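Researcher: Batch entry, complex prediction.
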Amino acid sequence: MANKLDSKIPSGPIESKWKNTKFGYKLVNPANKRKHSVIVVGAGLAGASAAASLGELGYKVKVFCQHESPRRAHSVAAQGGINAAKNYQNDGDSVYRLFYDTVKGGDFRAREANVYRLAEVSANIIDQMVAQGVPFAREYGGTLANRSFGGAQVSRTFYARGQTGQQLLLGAYSEMMRQVDTGNVELRYRREMLDLVIVDGKARGIIVRNLLTGEIESHEADAVVLATGGYSNVFFLSTNAMNCSATAAWRAHKRGAYFANPCYTQIHPTCIPVHGENQSKLTLMSESLRNDGRVWVPKAVGDKRHPNEIPESERDYYLERVYPSFGNLAPRDVASRQAKYRCDEGRGVNETGKAVYLDFADAIKRLGEDKISERYGNLFEMYDKITGDNPYKMPMRIYPAPHYTMGGLWVDYNLESTVPGLFVAGEANFSDHGANRLGASALMQGLADGYFVLPYTIGNYLGGTKLEKVSTSNDAFKAAEDSVKNDVSKLMGIKGSRTVDSFHKELGHIMWEYCGMGRNEQGLKKALELIPKLREEFWHNVRLPGDANYLNVELEKAGRVADFLELGELMCRDALERKESCGGHFREEYQVDGEAKRDDEKFCHVAAWEYTGENKAEVRHQEELTFENVHLATRSYK
Amino acid sequence: MAGKHINLTLKVWRQKGPKDQGGFVEYHAKNVSEDASFLEMLDAVNEELVSKGDEPIAFDHDCREGICGACGFVIDGEAHGRLKSTTVCQLHMRNFKDGEVLTLEPFRAQAFPVIKDLMVNRSAFDRIISAGGYISANTGNAVDANAVLIPKADADEAMSSATCIGCGACVAACKNASAALFTSAKISHMALLPQGQVERKERAIRMVAAMDAEGFGSCTTTGACEAACPKDIQLTNISRMNREFFVASATKRPKHKDGGAG
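Model: Structure tokens for the complex:
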């Protein structure tokens, strides 16, 4: 089995790996491209950019999205920006530095070759998006503006107010819609992928449910791309959109795609704190705010004074104190943990004691309210609307929340999973961020995969693979359709007494408590007892009203929660097996002075899990990581 | 942030499917936290309905941060409700008083057929975009991003138009159900930038034609769209669209049959 995890990392010096690999790839001539079809599931940044590029090349592309329009994909909500090694600021940035920062930021748990390629194409992404008309922020001289993000000492982040994700998504979406106009891309809305179809060992199609009519449909193709995002919603409360789920990725996993590093989850340090039991989701306040905002708590335990009444000398600007060289721009995992420590010490603010301050008073004094409003106006307004407090007048209250998942389906250098012909892009794969993603790198990775990697690697696959004709009347499609229909009627038939949300919330509590910011053996073992019990109850006691043959939101949610109940267990097992701390995976038993303590001897590898059947333990495989360019060192931001 | 709690009466439009007859049904939202959002209030009502075995009120929503454009319905005659520049997911219950009676109905327009309850089909917007709401830039052709300088004022103005989230509140608020604000925001965004110049005329003509073909009404410049827009897209976009369209129509050159390289 071990040979299944061939990462296909090319040999040669890191600077020329991608160039040489591209030259070695098989090509498909233009007339033959028209004969090949590719399915793209998910139409966020990675999916839309892949679909647009493949469409431009002349492939027949079918795009499926669960939303009513691809413009709703959750990439839209990314706020702060996108990294690129342009060195427009003359501050010492380079492809190599972005590569280095990303490998270090990921706590040395990512593949060097993938990360280098990401850094290399980052500059092309900015060029491409500007050409499409993305209105990035500019200086008075007409050049592009930059700001800084966590884990970097250069300014390499490009942005469009606090809505960078929206503008990039609309850019990729518009290019995809142009291909819809030319007829190369066919778009199917409100379709949720519920199974992957494999014929002769290769991914050849998908089964989807039409969310409006309940119809189960089969679609065939020569290759399948999953760009379906991450799984933070396993926590119930996260910054993800309500419809984000692991379903497409999980169903592909159950058909043979290995799932890598499921325990690597990112808890973002600056989110609006929880307000009550009926809360449906958490809202991020962009990391870009830490360019000008200073994070602090009162020095004294239980200081209940209004923040504006606490004098300077009685405040602890703890990030500046603990990490003098990176200060408030310490990376996310580090900043989140420090916030947790302060609250655990009893110095948290808010009625709940679970919040810290993010203060703009100094920046407003230095730059004026107008400048701050120009930079962060929409974020300040959003904060005001949600909390009823004015952040120009008093510090924001923030707390960490689940935000992003570095884990995902295992892919090789070509972004191909362990199922031949199944490619995975964007947050749905595991490839580039190691154990912690740096801010403004998710947009970069999604677009790198879709615009600059998949168009080459899919061409190589199609050009070099013998593909028999398949049709949806093939037995494999019929069998997959039947299994999906079976699942749907099973769910509808339970007729229990608890709502889907009540199960989801309970799972979220378990995950946050035992597999959240801090994890330990005892807690993870407890979670591994609780989750199967909850899953068992779900399959006997969930209540779904209505029918399956029209729009049924509860049924949609039930399928997703059923998958989360399986994935959550795998996350805990992965966290239990990884007996070290790295990046976002913090095992309390392995630490030095509150910082993550890696074990490079035993755990310098990717853990990729193989599904072996219902109610059977998954098998853990390892892909060793080698570092030939970046020296393995203890990560320090002090 | 533990605020007060209020009780509300909701009159909600219920409609099983696109072809079914709809009607208002009354519900009571009890003990609603003022810190909850409007959609969280509806979540609680739905949880109660589902526990009783009834079907929940269907409404579109996703990011709940006011940026995806999925949510939107009419509350007491106002698209997205009473708070200016705010989507319904960002409308919080502290803006309501205890005992209020609220009427909730879907966005109404011929081009936005009702799917179920408060959900409508807005895919007409996607078809308008695919008729020219893009700049043709094939992957891999781009020059260095700083090769073309764009004055900050132009970039800022283009950005203000580009912030449209495509929620359709403009259509719902318009007495003619016109999509002029939506269409003009995209035409403006691209007309303001140097990258958008090559296809500028073609874009204006095709997008306006697509908008008309979808069955949206005409714009009579009453400005209800601007007032309802959660992203403050301005009426000046419509003036620009009209100008773009007239100039393009008056100066459009004929297509040459034998154009192109041999």
